Structure formats: structure tokens, C-alpha cells
Amino acid sequence: xxxxxxxxxxxxxxxxxxxxxxxxxxxxxxxxxxxxxxxxxxxxxxxxxxxxxxxxxxxxxxxxxxxxxxxxxxxxxxxxxxxxxxxxxxxxxxxxxxxxxxxxxxxxxxxxxxxxxxxxxxxxxxxxxxxxxxxxxxxxxxxxxxxxxxxxxxxxxxxxxxxxxxxxxxxxxxxxxxxxxxxxxxxxxxxxxxxxxxxxxx
Length: 202
Prior knowledge:
Protein name: Flavin reductase
CATH class of the domain at 23-163: Mainly Beta
Pfam families: Flavin_Reduct (PF01613)
Distance between the termini: 41 Å
CATH topology of the domain at 23-163: Pnp Oxidase, Chain A
Organism: Puniceibacterium antarcticum
GO molecular function, one term: FMN binding
InterPro entries: Flavin_Rdtase-like_dom (IPR002563), Split_barrel_FMN-bd (IPR012349)
Shape: globular
């Protein structure tokens, strides 16, 4: 099968997200300039550079009470900071609860009964029990083709790692089974890893 997105795929559901899988989930916490808290998951998320460490996430829709975007991007525009909280399988229901189109005044930490902790380098809350948190300073917001499509880039200013996830000096993802996003309504967890040496590595 071949299709051009501009002409449609003819299938019951869009296969694009099912093709680009699995995708890590960036559970983005922000604080508005009015002090309100927000927490929302984004599956268009990844690390993009080592030195300095940088990440990105993309928001692809809008809410009526936020104009051309959603709460996360609107808050980041105002404050210039955000925190990425890594999602483990055990927090799947709380993450899903925070994904709703809630009013901008809604605190998703409270809604989903998620414990908050203060960030160290930025004025923002983080998910206290997350396996890791990345405190980020906004570097740029890029408007993408299409309506309400924005890519947000940030430099990682501080890193929290849960102590039980550090084994023999390595951040061991198998201690918390990362949750990943697939297509449609589907998710997956990572429960097995293997290593490969690149050519020339020993």
C-alpha cells in the first residue's frame, strides 16, 4: 500500500502514529504566570542534543480558552520554563487522567492525585515519584506547518533521578518499565533491553 497524506489513506483510522512507534512520552509540567499548575502528556517528544542537553516536544492542537495552542505551550510562552517528567507503567492511569481537555484553571496534579515536588533550578512543579525529571529552560518555540502545530525546544538545566533506578552507576530503565506511545489508543512498556557495539567500538 502507498498513500499520500494530502490525498488520504482510505483506512478506518490514520496509520501515521502507528508507523512512528514506539514514542517516549514527555509528561510536561508548567506553571502559569498567575501561579496555576498544569501537567499534560505529549508523545511527540524526544531528546535532541547532548551538549548542552536539549529536549523537544510538539503540541498539535488548541483549546478555546488558550487561543492558538494548549495550556503547556501558553504557560511556557509566559514563563520560559518547563519540566519533563518521565512516565512509568505504574503511573499510566494518572498520566491518562491528566491528558483531558481540562479548563486552564484545572490543576492536573490535584485532579489525578499526583504528588508534587518543587523543581530546583526553575519555578515549576514536578511529579515527585517520577523515575526522572528534566528541568528545562525554553530555547525556542517553532511554529510548524498546519494549524496549532508548535515544537518547543528547551535546554536541560537540572536532572532528578529516583534513587531506586540507579543500579551500579547506571540509570536502569528496567527498574520502572517506561511507558511508550503507539498508534490509535495503544501503549507499550519496555521490559527487555539488549546492547550493540557500533562499528569500531569495543
